[in-house]
Design a protein that fits this description.
The N and C termini lie far apart (89 Å). Strands 3, 4, 5, 6, 7 and 8 form a six-stranded antiparallel beta sheet that branches. Strands 10-11-9-12 form a four-stranded antiparallel beta sheet. The chain has a two-stranded antiparallel sheet with strand order 1-2. It is elongated. It has 353 residues and is an alpha+beta fold. The chain folds into four domains: 7-92, Arc Repressor Mutant, subunit A, CATH 1.10.10; 98-143; 155-255, no CATH class; 272-349, Alpha-Beta Plaits (2-Layer Sandwich). It contains eleven helices and twelve strands. α1 packs across α3, α4 (98-110) runs antiparallel to α5 and α10 crosses α11 (333-349).
Length: 353
């Protein structure tokens, strides 16, 4: 048997209308709200009742904006004209602007570490933080062809476990995976052919180049290590206190995150050292993007400048090959020799004399 909605639902229905149909550019009058209530919620409500419920919502802490205007109306009892305050143009003020929501959605779309299905679920949640007018603007994102196709369903669980371990200052154990030619993740194995168990002291989760990384120390070593979270599986918190950072080489004074990220441009583990290289000045924007503001420039000419950075040497070796046409490594000498050897091997593969 059909029954009309209970009156106690009125305030929730009004809030639902404000959430779905209003924003700074789309407002509703009390008459508009009454019409929607009648057509879509089967509730017949007068304007005074709507106004009272709107005021109750405001008293409850909802940021509902409106405009006021004064007009002359006839008093039904005295017949005299008197001033009356008219409230209209109601809308719910959002915690996020549409541009902020769009920025968050774009960040999800451009992310490489979030599986596509989870990405779209999160986008749908973000869409509902605004009105239907915003939702209609971003429908085209449904056609974007996924972030990377990676389907590590353990990713968000891994993040939660690591976050808890860092908060409790505990070690974690996990397996680590690498891709095979079948385009699937496979467990890394130890010398006995069994899945290798990593025991790590976790310190920080960071986002870099579209992926999440764990900055940590592998317990049997004394240096810093970085691991991709989407390649971690079977993570567990151990009831063992994490190693203090002061016992980790390069972290004796704690984590200087901007410095760490600038040094580890590809998030490789290993030694960092001062590096000097000559570069074309047209590359300055790219170099600043890679190394940040701690880079130092000297010996400027019309076309070149020498850059000084402190960086992970493995990463710098790869970076130097990437920019070999416009960059010349000057020091340290070992890095110069390594890059020279890499270029010779590359030249042989392409039969370059």
């Amino acid at each position: 048997m059909y029954t009309k909605p209970a009156k106690k639902l009125l305030i929730m229905n009004i809030l639902d209308i404000l959430k779905s149909r209003t924003d700074e550019n789309h407002t509703l009058s009390q008459a508009d709200i009454a019409e929607i209530l009648q057509k879509e919620y089967d509730m017949s409500v007068d304007r005074k009742t709507i106004r009272r419920n709107l005021m109750d919502l405001i008293e409850c802490g909802y940021n509902i904006e409106y405009s006021e205007s004064i007009r002359m109306v006839k008093n039904r009892e005295t017949g005299e004209m008197e001033e009356s305050t008219i409230m209209s143009d109601f809308y719910l003020e959002r915690e996020f602007t549409d541009s902020e929501l769009r920025l968050l959605i774009d960040s999800l779309l451009f992310s490489k570490h979030i599986p596509q299905k989870q990405c779209y679920k999160m986008i749908e949640k973000l869409e509902h933080l605004s009105s239907k007018y915003f939702q209609s603007k971003v429908k085209h994102i449904k056609t974007v062809s996924g972030s990377s196709g990676i389907e590590n369903k353990q990713l968000f669980y891994t993040i939660e476990v690591i976050d808890e371990a860092i908060s409790k200052n505990k070690q974690v154990s996990f397996h680590y995976n690498s891709y095979g030619i079948d385009k699937k993740l496979h467990l890394r194995l130890n010398n006995e052919g069994k899945p290798r168990v990593y025991i790590a002291n976790p310190y920080q989760i960071v986002a870099m180049n579209g992926y999440y990384y764990l900055i940590c120390n592998i317990d049997k070593f004394d240096d810093v290590a970085n691991y991709r979270l989407d390649r971690i599986s079977d993570i567990e918190i151990l009831d063992i206190p994490a190693k203090p950072t002061k016992k980790v080489k390069g972290m004796e004074n704690g984590i200087n995150l901007p410095k760490h990220m600038a040094e580890h441009i590809y998030m490789f583990s290993g030694e960092s050292a001062p590096v000097k290289f000559r570069m074309n000045k047209g590359l300055i924007n790219d170099v600043m993007d890679w190394f940040g503001n701690d880079i130092r420039f000297t010996d400027e000419t019309d076309t070149t400048v020498i850059a000084h950075v402190f960086v992970n040497l493995r990463a710098m070796r790869l970076w130097a090959i990437q920019y070999a046409v416009n960059v010349e490594i000057l020091s340290p000498q070992e890095l110069v020799e390594n890059v020279r050897q890499d270029l010779r091997m590359a030249a042989k593969k392409y039969d370059v004399s």
